[in-house]
Design a protein that fits this description.
Elements: E1 9-13, E2 22-27, E3 33-37, E4 42-46, E5 56-60, E6 67-73, E7 80-89, E8 94-104, E9 114-121, E10 131-132, E11 137-142, E12 147-152, E13 158-163, E14 179-184, E15 188-193, E16 198-206, E17 214-216, E18 221-224, E19 230-235, E20 241-246, E21 251-258, E22 263-270, E23 276-284, E24 287-294, H1 311-314, E25 324-325
Parallel strand pairs: 1-24, 5-25
Antiparallel strand pairs: 2-3, 3-4, 4-5, 6-7, 7-8, 8-9, 10-11, 11-12, 12-13, 14-15, 15-16, 16-17, 16-18, 19-20, 20-21, 21-22, 23-24
C-alpha cells in the first residue's frame, strides 16, 4: 500500500535478475507481464504477483540488437505487442539502429512468439519509448532531440508531433536525458523530463485521419518541477494523479493534480527501493493496482549506486537466478 493510501494494491516486481536493467513493461490478458531488458536484447514473461514465478525468456533479438528499449501493447489485437530494439552502449550513453518489431504471443505461451520486423527508425536521436495512439499510429519520445515523433507502422513514415524547450535536458554534468516517458489520455498528452525533474502536459485532440490520429491544440503546461531523476510514468484514469519514481533515491512520487488548472503537488508515497525504473497502473474491478519494477544492483554510465543496497531487503533472487529459455523460429518481413 502507498503511504497516502491512494493505491491499496502495490506489486513490487522482484523476480527479475538483480544485475539487470528492465524498462519496458506491459500487462498481458493472461495475468502475466511482458518486460524488455535494456542491457540485453531479451523479452521475458512471468506472473508478477507470484513471488515464486520464474521469468521465462520468450525471445532474444541478439541477431539484430544488444538491448531492448521498450515494449507496448498494440491496440485492436490480443496479446500482440510492439518492441523497440537498438544497439546500446550504456557506458558511453549511445543508442542507435532502432528497429520496431511486432510480437504476437500465445495465450498460454505454449507456442513460440511470432516476430515480425515493422521498420527501422531513421534520423532520430534516442527513441526512448513507444506509446500507441491507434492500431496504426505510435508515438515515440526522443530524449536527445527533445521531441515526440509520430510513427505510422503501416508505412514506416516518421513525422514530428511536437518539440518544445520543456523537453530539453538542462545544462550541467550528469544531465543526460530530457524527455523520457509519455502517457496519452483523451484530452492531454503527459510527459516527464528526467534531468529537469519536470512533469508536463499538452492539450491534444484526436482527429479522423488514420495516418495522423492526433495533434496538439495548445502550449505545454508545466505541472510539477520537483521530481529529479524521475523514471516511469503512470497516470490515474481520471488524470488527478501521476506516479513516477526516482531511480537515484529509491522512492515513488505521487503528483496530485488539479485538472482544471493543471497544477500539481508532489509527495513521496513509497521509499527504500533500489533503482525503480518502471511503474504501471492497472484497474481491477475499478480499483487501482500499481506495479513497480526495480533494477537492483546494476550500475549504468549515468549513475553509480552507493554501498547501501535496499534491493536485498526486498528481492528474493540475485544475479545467479536462472530463466527458462524457449527455442523459437523468427519470421522477419523487411519493409
Amino acid at each position: 500500500m502507498l503511504e497516502d493510501g491512494s493505491v491499496q494494491d502495490v506489486v513490487l516486481v522482484t523476480q527479475l535478475p538483480s544485475d539487470s536493467w528492465f524498462e519496458g513493461f506491459a500487462l498481458r490478458p493472461n495475468g502475466k507481464i511482458l518486460t524488455s531488458r535494456l542491457d540485453e536484447p531479451e523479452l521475458y514473461t512471468f506472473r508478477a504477483e507470484d513471488p515464486e514465478s520464474t521469468p521465462e525468456l520468450l525471445y532474444n533479438f541478439e541477431e539484430h540488437a544488444n538491448g531492448l528499449i521498450n515494449v507496448c501493447p498494440l491496440p485492436g489485437v490480443t496479446d500482440t505487442y510492439l518492441v523497440l530494439s537498438a544497439i546500446v552502449d550504456l557506458v558511453n550513453i549511445q543508442f542507435e539502429e532502432f528497429i520496431v518489431w511486432r510480437v504476437t504471443l500465445s495465450p498460454d505461451d505454449s507456442s513460440p512468439p511470432e516476430v515480425t520486423k515493422i521498420t527501422q527508425v531513421e534520423n532520430t536521436g534516442f527513441t526512448i519509448g513507444l506509446v500507441p495512439i491507434s492500431d496504426r499510429v505510435v508515438l515515440m519520445p526522443d530524449a536527445f532531440k527533445n521531441c515526440i515523433w509520430r510513427l505510422d507502422i503501416e508505412t514506416g513514415d516518421v513525422t514530428l508531433l511536437v518539440a518544445d524547450d520543456t523537453m530539453k535536458a538542462p545544462p550541467g554534468d550528469g544531465n543526460w536525458f530530457g524527455l523520457n516517458r509519455i502517457r496519452v489520455a483523451e484530452d492531454f498528452l503527459w510527459f516527464t523530463n528526467t534531468s529537469a525533474g519536470r512533469l508536463c502536459r499538452i492539450p491534444i485532440e484526436r482527429i479522423d485521419d488514420a495516418q495522423v490520429a492526433i495533434r496538439t491544440t495548445g502550449p505545454v503546461q508545466v505541472v510539477s518541477s520537483d521530481i529529479p531523476h524521475c523514471d516511469g510514468l503512470a497516470l490515474a484514469r481520471d488524470q488527478t494523479a501521476v506516479y513516477t519514481c526516482s531511480y537515484m533515491d529509491g522512492h515513488v512520487w505521487k503528483v496530485s493534480i488539479d485538472p482544471p488548472t493543471g497544477k500539481g503537488t508532489t509527495s513521496v508515497v513509497m521509499r527504500n527501493l533500489a533503482s525503480p525504473t518502471a511503474v504501471e497502473l492497472a484497474y481491477v474491478n475499478d480499483e487501482p493496482k500499481l506495479f513497480i519494477v526495480c533494477c537492483g544492483e546494476i550500475e549504468m554510465g549515468w549513475f553509480v549506486q552507493d554501498d547501501q543496497d535496499p534491493w536485498r531487503e526486498i528481492a528474493n533472487i540475485n544475479s545467479a537466478v536462472t530463466v527458462t529459455a524457449v527455442t523459437v523460429e523468427e519470421t522477419v518481413e523487411s519493409t
